Amino acid sequence: MTRRLWIMLVCGVLVVLIGNGLRLTFGVFLRPVSLELGIGRETFGLVIAVQALLYGAFQPIAGMLADRYGAVRVISIGALIYAAGLWLTSVAASAFDLYISLGLFVGLGLSCATNVIVLGAIGKLVPNERRGIVFGTVIASGSLGMFFFVPGAQHLLDLAGWRSTLVAMALMMVVVPLFALGLGEAPASAGGGAQQSVKDAALEAIRHRSYLLLTTGFFVCGFHVTFIGTHFPAYLSDNQVSPAAASYAFGVIGLFNILGAYLFGALSDRYSKKSVLTLIYLLRAALMTVMLLTPLTDISAIVFGACMGLIWLSTVPLTSGIVAQVFGPAHFSFLFGIVFMSHQLGGFTGAWLGGRIYDATGSYDLMWIISIALGLISAAFHWPINDRPLARVQAA
Question: How far apart are alpha carbons 301 and 22 in whole angstroms?
């Protein structure tokens, strides 16, 4: 890789490490925030669901703006909105305040300041045969942030309370625009096929059966990771797993996803991306089945976190890689933004439904069964995908 690409990669990794890493800590706030504000888990889950929905709904717009005006501007504005949302959450006094701060502001900020925009900027300069491992490295950085920030947030929360912890997180987001500067701007011709309009790119994708299958299947990824990210710490506590072990079980998801994202990203450069994706969803279903049938202890919780980490966000470099491989990088941020919107619709459903089922039944068991079934369905959706580049992309 060129020196410029290395600089972009390092800066992109730092942006995603902070932005996505902090997002993945919100699950540890469920119990203390719910208790202090007197709200149920369904309400907190719905706040995270609103956040996920806005994160996804605005993603295509943020991607289109980044394709047109550059990633630096979009990431910088998004990071400041994100920071404002975290600070407003720290002074929240009601569920409505949470919807505005942790839901609206953080959701909008996330759509601009995390992996989709970073991948779009870097993807314009990365050759297709290296895209899997490069994209995997970027996604793995968010998991590295999760590994550091989840136990760190839990420790700070125990020492200073959840409000002070959120203020510290807001200050971290304020520095993200400095790292965004290193992404620079790709040349206008870098993507190839720049003469294609956004409208033409959208119509071409919508008419492509495999794009629709990919978009639908990615809903399940969002459902899985947002349900687990929001409710897993509370689920472990409900099953008498110690708070320390619960935070480490959640944290090792991020640690092992560093290995998983890199490994599956490398595999996708060698084997068919859609086949590797099919395998990941089957492994998720199998792992959740084993966890549901096995008694939970401190050790088994950490083992589950490590195994889930290997396949946690490994879908993202493969899914984004298929979009870039089939349609080219010129409108990648916009087209992957649409796919990611489906992911966040799944996230909305997973976060809300998890809380709804728990408040109605006093257990997450039904939610795990639904998650297993969706994993099998998503595997079936990914298997027939055609991930060969379009003729115009091959010509470019």
Answer: 22
